[in-house]
Amino acid sequence: MAEMERKINLLMKVSEERDHEITTLRDQMQTRETTESSKTPLVKADDKGKAMLQENEMQQSIYATFLSVQQLQVIITSSIRAQYEGPQQTSFNDLRMSIGYQPPKFQ
Q1: 93 vs 88: CA distance, rounded Å
Q2: Same-domain pairing of 22 and 55
């Protein structure tokens, strides 16, 4: 029983740490997005071709940021699944039965 409590406490600690990492990453992403959106490209009014090119580059960089967010989500979900999925037999095999234990007989 104590071992299960230790495992539960360990899982809670790991999940809290990962939650903290996720929130810090989200904060970093939000600060990057706000700094990128606050930047205005310095372009002459008569040079429309370069303005379009710079706008496309900004959209591509924003798209790359979204790609990394999606990759981050995939990594997080796969790590959570790897941690919580799996055979449950190991926890049952660790349980000890008393010497005189008789399993119930169902009729």
Answers
A1: 9
A2: no
